[in-house]
Every structure is written in C-alpha cells, then in structure tokens.
Design goal:
Blueprint lengths: L2 E9 L2 E6 L3 E6 L3 E2 L8 E7 L2 E7 H4 L13 E5 L2 H7 L14 E5 L1 E9 L3 E2 L4 E2 L2 E2 L3 E6 L4 E5 L3
Length: about 150
C-alpha cells in the first residue's frame, strides 16, 4: 500500500495536515511586511533570503478567525512552487499543484509529522464546522483527534 506523509499544524484548536512533498521549509515567524489594500487573509510579504514570499493567514482564509493574531508558536510553512514540483515529479507522482510564485502559510503551531496508508484517508465532507469544503482534501483519524488535510489549489 502507498503511504502518504503529512506535516500537521494547528490553527486555533483545529489540526490540519499538508502533504510534506509540497513543503519547501518551515520557519519561525520572521518579519512580515503588511501590504495595503491586500485581501484580509494576506498577512503580508516576507523576505526569505532575497526572495519575496506572499504569506497567507490560514485561519482568516478558512474563516476560523477574523483578526490576525500573533503568538509565540506561530510559524510560516513555505510551499514549493509549481515549477519546483514539476522538476521533481515522476510519472506516478500525483502531488497537487501549488503556485508559480513563492507562498507561505501562516499557522499557529506546528504539530508532528504523520503517516497514513492511502486507504486511511477518507473523502472530505462538504463542511467541517466553519471550514468550507473547497479547502479540504480529506480526513484522517488519529488516536485522539481528526487531521483535516488541506488542499492548496
């Protein structure tokens, strides 16, 4: 059976997961420059070793919070670009697309890396509380909680 690995993270009390193949790196919340007139879910821009990265606040984007919060455990998950993924993709590698530009997800706290067999990942329901179905790629059961697998596209 094929296994899938996910990096888990929290937004509030909600546990989410993202396919590790999509992640370039995870950083502490460095200085993010706000952008005037950007949508409310755009936290701002981050200068990552000379590359400009758009930072998206996952909590606001998914409707889990209204205001940007900053807590000590916050991190940014920098995603690989579509170009980086295409360069590494094999014929049998169904990894989803991201963006052609560098994008990072602003999250409250990083969790553990978890591995599931493909058959353990269930189809997403239409909604999970306040979270719209368009953001959900699947659900996996952990011992004490559910892991909500997010779609990046």
């Amino acid at each position: 059976m094929a296994q899938q690995q996910f990096t888990s993270f929290y937004v509030g009390e909600n546990l989410f997961g993202i396919d590790i193949r999509l992640i370039r790196e995870i950083n502490r919340n460095t200085e993010i420059t706000p952008v005037d007139s950007a949508p409310d879910f755009i936290r701002g821009l981050l200068n990552l070793r000379g590359q400009i990265v758009t930072v998206i606040d996952v909590g606001i984007r998914m409707g889990l919070r209204l205001n940007p919060e900053k807590i000590d455990t916050s991190r940014v998950i920098v995603l690989k670009t579509s170009g980086e993924l295409a360069a590494r993709r094999g014929d049998n590698d169904p990894v989803e697309e991201t963006s052609r530009d560098l994008v990072a997800l602003y999250v409250d706290k990083i969790g553990d890396m978890v591995t599931f067999e493909a058959k353990e990942i269930e189809a997403p329901p239409a909604n999970i509380g306040q979270i719209q179905g368009k953001f959900i790629g699947g659900i996996a059961k952990l011992e004490k909680e559910l892991l909500i697998i997010i779609k990046i596209t």
